[in-house]
Amino acid sequence: AATAFGGCRYNSHYTQALLTAYGGRVDERVISRYSEGLDGVIVEIKDNLVAVGGRMLMDELKVETGDDSLDPDILYIAVNSRYAGRILLASTLREGASDVVYQFQSSDIRTIMFTDEDEITGKAAARSLGFDKCYPSRSYESKLHLVSEPRTGYAGSDKRLLDASGAGIKMTEPGPELLNASADSMPELTVFNSNPARIADAHKLSRQIRDASNLNFAVQLGFKTAGVILSFIGLLPFWAAIAIESGVKYICSARKI
Q1: Which of 70, 72, 74, 78 is nearest to 87 (CA)?
Q2: Which of 224, 219, 229, 216 is nearest to 242 (CA)?
Q3: Which of 78, 99, 163, 211 is the most buried (most CB within 10 A)?
Q4: Residue 158 carries which DSSP code?
């Protein structure tokens, strides 16, 4: 989406990032000239030429920044072709993500984060979210090896990683493409929601179902065994043992999770 100021449309993603981070009102009366390119923007403010952009723009203006980084998340600032500083762009953490990590850890599940961010940024994000471990800038083959280890699940959208993991978890919104998807092409678990908390909810529900199934099996087996033994030694009529077993089955099937 473009941002409009005084009839001018500013389409550059650099401009969008700066305006979003600034969050204030831009006084266009001090701007006498504005131009944007693929690698930055240049404005003239009170007879000062201010350039904000990436490495290509700085090279074009012959501005020495003191490094040779091509990181697209670094914006350099130059005033009158002299280096004035830099802005580091960072991805925002999804609200409630730390709560999801805590829910998994409270169920004795070890959490690991993959990220393409650099080591400092990636580990700082993992630390703030509470992950047990972080693998920043990991190679794809290394990711495949890690998710294929026994009793390991992967939550994401990469099909190869979903197929390689012990439990693939994909988050997606319901749409027409799912109607044409075969059951074989779907991962072990598909969460029809973009909220990561639903993964923890699904895990909690699956454990409740497992526990309820185990309890029902144990109760039915116990009553059936007791009925057979009591009928065999003559302490209980056979019809009564069958009635008790049927009643126990009904009670177990009527239990709510």
Answers
A1: 74
A2: 224
A3: 78
A4: -
SS3 category, 129: helix
Rounded to the nearest integer, the mean pLDDT of the chain is 76
Query: 3-state DSSP call for residue 199?
Result: helix
- Among residues 65, 57, 56, the alpha carbon closest in space to that of 83 is found at 65
The backbone torsions φ and ψ at residue 204, rounded to the nearest 5 degrees and listed phi first, read: -60, -40
- DSSP letter at 234 equals T
Q: Which amino acid is at 186?
A: M
* 121 φ, ψ (degrees, to nearest 5): -65, -45
Give the pLDDT band of residue 157 (cuts 50, 70, 90). confident
How sure is the predictor about 10, in pLDDT bands with cuts at 50, 70 and 90? very low
| CA-closest candidate to residue 65, choices 41, 57, 73 | 57
The alpha carbon of residue 249 and the mean position of all alpha carbons in its chain are separated, in whole angstroms, by 41
pLDDT of residue 88 exceeding 50, the answer is yes
Compute the average pLDDT of residues 28-41.
77
* Spatial CB neighbours of 146, under 8 Å, sequence gap ≥ 6: 112, 135, 138, 152
- Please answer whether residues 42 and 34 qualify as being in contact, where contact means their C-beta atoms are separated by less than 8 angstroms: yes
Query: Mind listing the pLDDT tens digit for each residue in 172-194?
Result: 666 655 555 555 656 667 777 76
User: What pLDDT sits at residue 7?
Assistant: 34
- Burial class of residue 14 in the structure, from the number of CB atoms within 10 Å of its CB (0-12 exposed, 13-18 middle, 19+ buried): buried
The pairing of beta strand 167-171 with beta strand 153-155: parallel
